[in-house]
Amino acid sequence: MKEMIRFSRIVLVINLLLLSDIICAQTPNEIVGKLMNEQKMFELREQHEQLKEQLTPMINYFAQSMLAESFNNPESGIIAIDTLLNNEIYQQQLGLDNIAYLIYLKSGFLETLFRYKESSEMLESFLTQTKDLPINQDLRTNCTVSLRINKVIGAYPSTRINRPQKDVEIDLFVEEAGKGTALNIPCEINGRNAIMCFDTGNPKYSLVTKEFANTHNIIAIIDSIPMQGVGSGFAKIGIADSLKIGDIACYNSLFYIVDKISPIDSISIDAVLGSEILNSIGEIQLFPSEKKIIFPVTQTESTLSEYNLIMNNRHLFIRLNQNSDNILMHFDTGSSLSNMSKNYFEQNKDSIEKVALKDSIRLAGYGGVSYQLGYKIPKLSFAIDNIHFEMDNISVYTESVLSQWKENGCLGADFVQKFEQVIINYKKMFIEVK
Fold this sequence. Notes:
- The protein is of the alpha+beta class.
- It contains 14 helices and 22 strands.
- It has helices spanning 20-23, 27-38, 41-51, 57-70, 74-85, 88-94, 96-112, 116-129, 137-153, 210-215, 275-281, 342-347, 349-355, 413-416, and strands at residues 160-162, 168-171, 173-177, 180-189, 192-198, 206-209, 219-228, 232-245, 248-258, 271-273, 283-287, 292-295, 309-312, 315-322, 325-331, 339-340, 357-365, 368-384, 387-397, 409-411, 422-425, 430-433.
């Protein structure tokens, strides 16, 4: 199994400072505008809820669209963006780059809802109308790539999830993976049995090797898609008539197809479940010691004092408490071992160097294997709400790995095994442990 696999995050240059002319000296707009610029989304949600009645409409709707991405509410995001884009006054206030950003954001919302044809039509119209206008090149490139993909996918029947009106329970295979653990589940693809890695860090389509795709009759429909993991390369996108997880059926399911996924030691990977499907199911309950997963028909009412999960470019991040401070961790069950990031090292360098041993860290997944020097801390303590736990012998990176956001590290499969039950709720955006 792999240490980690992560697709490249799309880097958007969001020039929200263009909003400064409108923000002026109004205190509520200043507060919310600053949090938008800094992408402090938990704080933005709190302040927006308190101040939304005092905000100028354009700032209010722009904040709503950003919050919709962070807290996985595509329907409300589409409404907020349409309100902005259908108003000529708001368009003038926004400027072209912010409009391009909103178009791209809406495209992502439509993809989440499997409305690929609608997304491609919107992107094509926008790119045609602005072909001679100066738009941030990253935004234009990202819109162009999305158009190419969504135009092809939109010609096929939409992805559709069918599930019974009862809890669905399946096996969870907890297996050794190098120095850590892999979480695997049984599936059925086009009528053939398969084992797939349960990977919350795989943010979109499922991922399979070319050999696996051929064996399970996953048909390639798009080629030459840039992809980045440990290394970089190109993938194809394929489609399967059906993917079944227990009694849950996903029709017209999409897959990235790559030549290979680099293994950890002698353990190889052929298939990784995409969180696009987990998101559609809504809630997952892991029981590591009982080696089972339940997909409940009725979602859990959280007992947390506040919701703790956020999304950025479809990656999940959980807010933990450490020594009375909030820290942000990428939640990636496809990583066999948890680790701390370069950000964490730089913020705690002196204390780490006093207690930690130098260590060689191995990273494997899509695109190859890499090594870097880092540190290993004997023990770190964390808390989720009032539940305290410790991670032992946790590695600390001193260099950036893959494409990182603001996280202080990654919680992997070994984190999940700390608890009797882990509830992951994509709809209400929380993780609760027991």
